[in-house]
Model the fold of this input.
Amino acid sequence: MSISESTDRSTSIAADTSIGTVQLRVSNLDRAATFYERLIGLTAAEQPDGSVLLGGAAGWPPLLSLTGDSAAPPRNPRQTGLFHLAILVPTRRDLAVALVRLVQGGWHLDGASDHLVSEALYLSDPEGNGIEIYRDRERSDWRLGPDGKPQMATLPIDLDDLIAELRDAPIDPARDGRMPAGTRIGHVHLQVSELRETERFYIGVLGFDLITREYPGALFVSAGGYHHHIGLNVWNSRGGATPPPTGVGLRAFELRLGDPAALAAVLARVEAAGVKPESTPDGATLVRDPSGNGILLTV
Done:
């Protein structure tokens, strides 16, 4: 997909834009739902169409929607799609509880990092979908660069210090068996085939602000000064193909606009750029980035 050069960049996406439900297709629905319930601590609710919604302790808003298809081709890590979905927990103690839950469940981490703006744990689900569980530092503690934008890094995290959060507030199985209320999807990180058209789409069309491109082969964009709502990289997928529409992995993620006017502004830029939206059965508008990643635009 080639983005029109005439795209109007005079208006940024609304500051209160956020990431909503991430939709995944899995080959073994029972196994995936059990993983997200027991190891991640989400609350599952089966839907009339057979899919499963998963949320925090209150069950709403849903963080994930899982659709099962035993015939779905496995995820190809060299193709475009999901790099990871990022579950944002309210406090540092909640992150420590998540770590203990994973360790006690016998699940290994892929990594753990201090990003200056946040602290994060990384792992993969049974189908190979990447997951980040993280907590944000207070915005007043973020380091800002000369351009006023948050500075990020990838540093080792002190896991012993993280676990020490539980010293004065030990785990209570009745309270800590589920991710707490307020848990949500903080951002998504996508694999794309290239960065030039991708940047023009997310910044020039959707209206996100560029936060940094200092990580080689990646860029990070956000709304409202957040450190990032969407990460984009070509680390494994440079020149990669779009996965089959029936394959394991990302179906789409929800981009929530604060009001109808904000949605209309985005749709006007989409139309001006020559990007053709698709209608979904539930009335939402679906657009695809230049690498085929699906984005549901909702209010």
